[in-house]
Amino acid sequence: MDFFPKPKTNEPDVPATSSRLALKFFLELVQVVAISLAIIIPVRYFLVQPFYVKGASMEPNFFDHEYLVIDELSYRFHQPQRGDIVVFHYPNDPKNYFIKRVIGLPGETIEIAEGQVKIYNDKYPNGIVLDEHVYLDDVYTAQTRRETLKANEYFVLGDNRPSSLDSRYFGPISDKVIVGRVWVRGWPLDRWKIFSSPTYNL
User: Cis omega (within 30 of 0) on the bond before 188?
Assistant: First the structure.
């Protein structure tokens, strides 16, 4: 009796094919993750950053636990403007972040007296009362203080003046501690908003 070898077939090797498919899927997954990180990391650390509001110092414009998107890019091209809402490292404890509104600009003198904020600068050497009705229900500002700002300093105040720890107490802030400008309120959805600087009477 003759024995002949089993003829070869063209049927694929199933285990080998499964391994190749798994490897291909893994490599594609690594590619997707790498590309995503290449996009997300620069955006997260150099362009925008999420923050949430803690405390009542900016009410009624910002409430506790609202989520904000901070623009970290703009101030690389221009200086903060009056009325900008900024997030910065608290000068007395840099691990903590504060959110306040820019009121005084570099080189200006800020005077708080009799419930009013007065700005002295080249245009108004005799001073002018800052009109903040556009974002404050009660424009009365307690405390008495007069501060002349250096070339890199800003005077910041909370919108909820009676409940705000701000430049009235810890003084002006340096531009080096500013993280960025509040750009978007993303949460809650019914209060979603893009922010821009208000117009003043200056």
Answer: yes
Q: How many C-beta neighbours within 10 Å does residue 47 have? A: 13
Q: Which residues are part of the catalytic machinery? A: 57, 100
For residue 84, report the phi and psi dihedrals to the nearest 5 degrees.
-60, 140
pLDDT averages per 10-residue partition of the chain, 202 residues: 49 60 68 46 50 86 89 89 95 92 97 96 95 89 95 96 94 95 88 87 75
Q: How many residues does the chain have?
A: 202
Residue type present at position 17: T
Phi, psi dihedral angles at 150 (to 5 degrees): -75, 180
pTM, rounded to two decimals: 0.74
C-alpha span between 172 and 114 (Å, rounded): 20
What domains are defined for the chain?
46-194 (2.10.109.10)
